[in-house]
């Protein structure tokens, strides 16, 4: 939730535009300097140096240096404890991010304070927001539970994305990037600048496409961004529309480990009819997401501000797939079908090949709000009362568009599965305050109450069909507290404790028998560290301990579309040390490094393998107990570095690298079911030229990014499953190979 606070004329005076964007001073300068601008907006869900938590702000300049068309996760891969993933192997299309080993369903993402995580899966699909970085002012990466946020509880990290602020001068930009595997990004941006000292309109249109590293791993992405703002001394009104559309060829099945060193670009998707036949051409994922936000912020007094943001996020789409040898009964096809054979008799057929679409349509709507107080004197330096009301409706249905036999299907398709709509209501309210006990010692307190009601179609042993519409209720109380101590000029120590609670996801219910229904999970998060800032050095060292109760972890089972099925474990934890340092010995040279050493364990875990007889009929489970076993996808060591040098004005050369140690695909700490450690080296060149006045052209930027310069053959994601057959344990591993050496080049024109 985006909130605005202005501490009188002093803060208004700070709401100036960057030096490079300033205009000649007009006659109404005084009025322009006192209007309420987005630069003076403080996001209530963002951490500060007063909250005693662990965070990093990634500026627009840093984002644009990496923005060649890859998704947001790849622009954040130089921040501490981050591991990125890409299904197609290029950072375009379906991508993901893990922070401290926690996946995207536990990373709370907000856009201007409005929740982005899908209400049922808790996931964030950056593929639905192509080229969002071009419209982003900054991103705050909060590690750990962090301050209270809107949406599902942060269970490892939060990403707080804020879109572009006010630009007082009219502008236009044309950005193009091209590169390996047919990657191409085109972006056009324009803005009116201030009109009559109060109004601005900004717009962007983007297209991103790539053929992908893996076979047929192509992406066709489009995005539009439009915002209009009115501001005066006490009021800020901003309307925002953001829409993204994606069509991608499916590459989410990964690659069997037997092919990893034989044909690492092979794509299994679309080959269900047989590998000897051409892959189905329309094995695609298609989805559109539309965001509508309206920020209303009003300065009620010199010390009090109220902001409200109504919003509506609408999504809809499907994935299409060819499925062979499907039982008639599953699709409501009457049968059997009798077919003549070569010897003159009839074969009885009860299966057919089909083409099916699985649909999801969603509406997420509501409002966020915050009343923020910043007294001019007293112990309390800042206090906020905020929260949100969020409603959700999800439609899940499946349809056939073609069947080989047994059914005549109209052009509009025919539905064979249509669940009752899912509904979710999420209401939260929080209060937080910063208190200065002494000149050097500060205290932070934050208390959130969250209530959730979730209605969905889930397994029910008492229902005739085996499923029924059910309502599940949760009530969570999440306290947080922190201390900050200013040791000396530029050196601060901090410590904090936070509790976060989170409900299970949809598949945790729909893919789990009612007898094994999961429960909510709880995180107790301890953080302590020091931060140092001087003219040449910015550094931080942080220790964290994250203790979980009933954490939902991988069970080793997959559902019928490959989603992981989770199970609760009573006690587990993550603990580690994060270090980050930026050193500028001279203005032309910058050296930044990050490293995280961690230990991620489940104290007691039971792994289950399904047992099948010779007819491949399920007969039970084989349990295996583990103690102090590693949590899946949680490397013990991650590291990154960036070295950037400017030999002549405008020319910047950079080397960037990232490392991740071994990651296990399940919770058994078995090396044969793991991702090998990898080190990846990139290099980048940027040249910024300010031409003499020519048709209004202000800047020309040329840039080249060479990824994986050492052609490392690595994977950064995968999954595993297994079962017992013939008395033998059998496991199957799948991985997502990443591109070897590849490049991206961009030309950016700014008017």
UniProtKB/TrEMBL annotation:
Subcellular location: Cell outer membrane
Domain TonB-dependent receptor plug: 50-157
InterPro entries in alphabetical order: Beta-barrel_TonB (IPR000531), Beta-barrel_TonB_sf (IPR036942), Plug_dom (IPR012910), Plug_dom_sf (IPR037066), TonB-dep_rcpt-like (IPR039426)
Major location (coarse): membrane
TonB-dependent receptor-like beta-barrel domain sequence ranges: 266-708
Signal peptide extent: 1-21
Superkingdom per UniProt: Bacteria
PROSITE patterns (UniProt xref): TONB_DEPENDENT_REC_3
Gene3D superfamilies: TonB-dependent receptor, beta-barrel domain, TonB-dependent receptor, plug domain
UniProt entry keywords in alphabetical sequence: Cell outer membrane, Ion transport, Iron, Iron transport, Membrane, Receptor, Signal, TonB box, Transmembrane, Transmembrane beta strand, Transport
One Pfam short name: Plug
Recorded topology in the membrane: Multi-pass membrane protein
Family: Belongs to the TonB-dependent receptor family.
Protein name, per record: TonB-dependent receptor
Organism whose genome encodes this protein: Hymenobacter negativus
